[in-house]
Fold this sequence. Notes:
2 copies of one chain form a homodimer.
Chain A: H1 10-22, E1 26-27, H2 28-37, H3 44-56, E2 60-64, E3 70-74, E4 81-85, E5 91-94, H4 97-109, E6 113-124
Parallel strand pairs in A: 4-6
Antiparallel strand pairs in A: 1-3, 2-3, 4-5
Helix pairs in contact in A: 1-3, 2-3
The structure holds zinc ion (4 copies).
The structure holds a DNA duplex.
Amino acid sequence: MGISTQTMNKSDIKLIAVLERTGGFASAQELHQILRREGDGIGLTTVYRALQSLVDDKIVDLLRREDGEAIYRLCGDTHHHHLVCKSCGDTVEIEGGAIEKWAKTMAEEFGFRDVGHTAEIFGICSKC
Amino acid sequence: MGISTQTMNKSDIKLIAVLERTGGFASAQELHQILRREGDGIGLTTVYRALQSLVDDKIVDLLRREDGEAIYRLCGDTHHHHLVCKSCGDTVEIEGGAIEKWAKTMAEEFGFRDVGHTAEIFGICSKC
DNA sequence: TCACAAAATGAAAATGATTATCATTTCCAA
DNA sequence: TTGGAAATGATAATCATTTTCATTTTGTGA
Ligand SMILES: [Zn+2]
Ligand SMILES: [Zn+2]
Ligand SMILES: [Zn+2]
Ligand SMILES: [Zn+2]
């Protein structure tokens, strides 16, 4: 099913589980703390390794906090963007139809090829 | 003229000058090396301080390399986005009319307030 | 010009995330 | 069962960035 269920090991699955439970974005350090708190003795190194492999397999999203720290989130397999609450971290996956068109148009206009893009919206959610 | 020409000191001006000369994005470490190579004995701490104040004053843009390292670029004072060449680093500032609208629409739809956004396009430029 | 406080500077140490090492343990197929 | 490959995690190493703090520069009023 998954892109590489073959290469998925116990740690990968643990990380997927904790990401499912927590929902939003979390850093490697935070995920490690959560697992530790729950009694899992997993090492920080392994957390980093698992996250890296999940990112490689496109099973989790990696983006950056404002201070540059990497944060991870389980994500669907279709291309999408995020609406993130700056206060509580709640995240909504949204479509970016307008963005896709914009990126393509701009790339063409300036003669760029092989283009990708990033687009995130952040603000304060209704609960906060 | 500028937002805070009053608070602009010698180091700020040096950094602006080197950013003008180099054109694209560069990290604090790179800018420091360039200045050193040119015979300027400026300290790394001062480079960081100057960049920080220039970012605060909206005189330079701060964004992140894929590995999270902060990179800086002199920029106009109007809100804009970037089209960056993954190969040579060349950057074009572009308007994001479509993005602005998209961000606003999505934020409203999900009840977010006080929203901002980021959007970058990256690819290979025509020269590369 | 002189004195002196505020601002600027930079060397060195501290911090904090991420990565590299490497010895040990767990898996698994032959 | 067994030998080697994969996985694990403690520890050390990296590396960008921030803090500290002592020194230097700058500006201003006497
Ligand atoms: Zn919220
Ligand atoms: Zn998109
Ligand atoms: Zn290029
Ligand atoms: Zn915009």
